[in-house]
Amino acid sequence: MISIAKAFSSSYAQARVKFLEAAATAGINVQSHAHPLKGRDGEDLAMDVARDGPMNAPNLLIISSACHGAEGFCGSGVQVHALHDADWLEKARASGTAVLYIHALNPYGFSHLRRTTHENVDLNRNFQDFNQSLPDNAAYRALHSLILPEQWPPDAANQAATLAFIAKNGEAAYQSAITQGQHEFADGLFYGGKSPTWSNQTLRGVLRQHTASAKRIGWIDLHTGLGPSGHGERIWAGGDDSTAIERARAWWGGGPARRRSARHAGLRNAGHARCGLRRPRRTRLHCLVAHPCGHCQTTQRA
Ligand SMILES: [Zn+2]
Predict the structure, then answer these.
(1) How many angstroms does the Cα of residue 4 sit away from the middle of ligand 1?
(2) What pLDDT score does 243 carry?
(3) How far is the centre of ligand 1, averaged over its atoms, from the C-alpha of 176 (Å)?
(4) Ligand 1: distance of its center to the CA of 8 in Å?
(5) Cα separation, 42 vs 59, whole angstroms
(6) What separation in Å is there between the alpha carbon of 292 and the centre of ligand 1?
(7) More confident residue, 125 or 267
(8) pLDDT over 90 for what percent of the chain?
(9) Distance from Cα 293 to the centre of ligand 1, integer Å
(10) Bridge-partner residues for 83, per DSSP?
(11) Per-residue pLDDT tens for 98-154?
């Protein structure tokens, strides 16, 4: 066991070293999937995968970090601390549950302190079927030039037009228009891309390899940006399945694992990373929770 503070890092490079050291301390091998680009300090980038438990374990818990790049500081710290926690490791092993730690779904964003991938894609909007027509977001189209004006700060006309949009459509519609994702403006916000990103393709490969034998899968995807500072807020991300939601709440000691609120409603078909999990028919996804921890210095959305 290490102190909580020691599990956290001030850069991706440091976080990766701590993760690799923690996995080695726990006696767990790491598969590293090299990213084609370098990090902010010239370091190598990778999606690192550590599996504790046999490949044929019927129960699998996935714990992933850095879907949204810079949010990985929190998720990495949680993973590192867990790997140094002998009691936790022993309990998981004794229960017959394999645990799959995926460090840095989006290592480029983590290192470069960006939410997006190197393709400027929001990874949680990128898991679409690109053989089909992509979702249209007319409301974002109307707002794009207001959100990203030619000059900064925005001028009075820009601010008036933005306020007029909100007055006409409501604040929830304004937020949803932006956060639900869009596939039209490659330089825009919450861009979902026009093809699978490196992180998308790599994660799908990891999931294919590690979930094939699992009968029951839980997935905790660690984010930051919602809820009070220092508080871990649970958001159910697995669809409208009341039985599964109650099961998730039971996992958390009866505490709330809330459904997506109105501000997340637009994410329903947004191309969430969970869509990368293609399961055999008899496999049950028991719990899928995006777990954003409150952070006082960010307004990013899970
Ligand atoms: Zn996030």
Answers:
(1) 22
(2) 83
(3) 15
(4) 18
(5) 38
(6) 7
(7) 125
(8) 71
(9) 10
(10) none
(11) 999 999 999 999 999 999 999 999 999 999 999 999 999 999 999 999 999 999 999
Distance 300 CA to ligand 1 centre (A): 7
Q: How far is the CA of 262 from the centre of ligand 1 (A)?
A: 17
Does residue 256 have a pLDDT over 60? no
Contacts for 179 with CB less than 8 Å, ≥ 6 apart = 190, 263, 264, 266, 267, 301
Q: How far apart are CA 199 and CA 107, in angstroms?
A: 8
Residue 269: which pLDDT band, with cuts at 50, 70 and 90? low
Q: Which two tokens stand for residue 6?
A: 């020691």
Distance 56 CA to ligand 1 centre (A): 31
Mean pLDDT of the chain: 87
Distance from the alpha carbon of residue 133 to the mean position of ligand 1, in angstroms: 25
- What does pTM read for this prediction? 0.88
Ligand 1 centroid to 71 CA: how many Å? Answer: 6
pLDDT value, residue 238: 73
Quick one: which of 210, 190, 107, 108 has its CA closest to 143? Answer: 190
- Give residue 224 CA to ligand 1 midpoint distance, Å: 6
In this structure, of 87-96, 248-257, 259-268, 280-289, the range with the lowest mean pLDDT score is 259-268
Å from CA of 60 to ligand 1 middle: 23
Question: How many angstroms is it from 79 CA to the middle of ligand 1?
Answer: 16
Record the tokens describing residue 11, joined without a space.
Answer: 């850069």
**Coil, strand or helix: which one is 102?**
strand
Ligand 1 centroid, distance to 227 Cα (angstroms):
12
Burial class (CB in 10 A: 0-12, 13-18, 19+), 194: middle
Contact 7, 15 (CB under 8 A): no
Residue 241 per-residue DSSP state: -
Domains of the chain: 4-119+197-294 (3.40.630.10), 138-179 (no CATH)
